[in-house]
Automatic annotation (TrEMBL):
Keywords: 2Fe-2S, Iron, Iron-sulfur, Metal-binding, Oxidoreductase. Pfam families: Rieske (PF00355). The keyword Iron-sulfur applies. Residues 42-144 form the Rieske domain. This is Rieske domain-containing protein. Coiled coil: none annotated. The keyword ATP-binding does not apply.
Length: 344
């Protein structure tokens, strides 16, 4: 079901802070989630390039650790990292015939996450099973969904990957803050204007919500690209994709956030442009480089702010109508943590 964000909704949300503010205090502390839960989103856990066929790596995820590996069929898998025997980190082990072999006693787990071999000769315990996250691969990233069943497809661009040149990379500056607070920047028009030097206009009547994603058009002036129209899509409460055009060439960007501790976030970034004539087109190559510089500029300007932020909803103003809506959108977003007992 598709719903629109109306002016009445925004006006109501922007008006709330005036009733909450105490002149002697700092306003309302916003808790977007509890300590034992995270939002039910697709989270990027690794770059596709980091996980070759037959390889196995470990990655911090939510408030624990997972393994990410690729079997001989090329399919990526994300599972809880600790052996169900004595808790050895399976990322220190290896893949043997598409099974994960523990480094401690060589117990092996199959593609369903079940223990299938105990070299000591004992039958595998029936409950010796890893937690398996729904896994997807798109835009040069391996994604894990925090939940039993995904609420929407993994983030992607409107154009097929086969028609694009894609560069995926990590934000070199992890931030000491909850990921959804960083994501709230997507609604913070004041921030874009003053911190990033990007005048931005959003037609709030045309913001739509559908299946746990939001869509809106932003008219932005950037130092890198000049005046552009951005088709923005917000996936869950951690990922933004942007489609734009400059100089007659389309380009795409993604910024996605993965919680790697209770209050620490690793960002992943993607830049892409149509592959047609890319090898012979220096302007396309330059556009990708420019897109990367643009993305890194934004995250570098934000990192010291988020590393020191003590987030409260306090004195919002009329310019914060979209931000007020974003706060409510994140607060009502579904939460889960089905793998909590096995990833820690």
């Amino acid at each position: 079901m598709e719903t629109k964000m109306t002016d009445e909704t925004l006006a109501n949300e922007a008006a709330k802070p005036s009733r909450l503010v105490d002149a002697r205090g700092r306003g309302t502390k916003i808790e977007f989630r509890g300590e034992e839960e995270f939002h039910a989103c697709w989270y990027p856990v690794a770059l596709s390039s980091e996980v070759e066929r037959g390889s196995l790596i470990g990655a911090p995820f939510l408030d624990g650790r997972v393994i990410v590996y690729r079997t001989s069929d090329g399919i990526a898998h994300v599972r809880s990292a600790y052996c169900r025997h004595l808790g050895a980190d399976l990322s220190v082990g290896r893949l043997v015939n598409d099974t994960v072999q523990c480094p401690f006693h060589f117990w092996r787990y199959d593609v369903a996450g079940s223990c299938v071999d105990v070299p000591a000769g004992d039958p595998p315990p029936p409950y010796a099973k890893l937690f398996s996250y729904p896994t997807a691969e798109s835009l040069g990233l391996i994604w894990a969904f925090n939940g039993e069943t995904p609420l929407h497809p993994a983030p992607h661009f409107e154009q097929s990957e086969a028609a694009l040149v894609i560069e995926a990379y990590r934000n070199p500056l992890p931030m000491k803050v909850e990921s959804s607070i960083v994501f709230l920047n997507s609604f913070d028009l004041q921030h874009f204007r003053v911190v990033h030097g990007m005048p931005i206009e959003v037609d709030l009547d045309r913001v739509t919500e559908h299946e746990h994603t939001l869509g809106y058009e932003a008219r932005v002036s950037t130092p890198e690209f000049g005046e552009v129209v951005q088709d923005r899509r917000l996936w869950g409460v951690n990922t933004v994709t942007i489609a734009s055009e400059t100089g007659g060439r389309k380009f795409y960007q993604l910024h996605s956030l993965c919680p790697v501790e209770n209050h620490a976030t690793q960002g992943f970034l993607v830049s892409a442009t149509p592959a047609a004539d890319f090898a012979e087109d220096d302007s396309a190559r330059a556009l990708l480089a420019q897109s990367r510089e643009y993305a890194l500029r934004l995250v570098n300007e934000d990192a010291p702010i988020f590393d020191t932020l003590s987030f409260r909803r306090d004195n919002l103003t009329a310019s914060d109508r979209f931000l007020a809506f974003g706060i409510q959108y994140i607060r009502r977003y579904p939460r889960a943590h089905p793998g909590r007992e096995l990833i820690r």
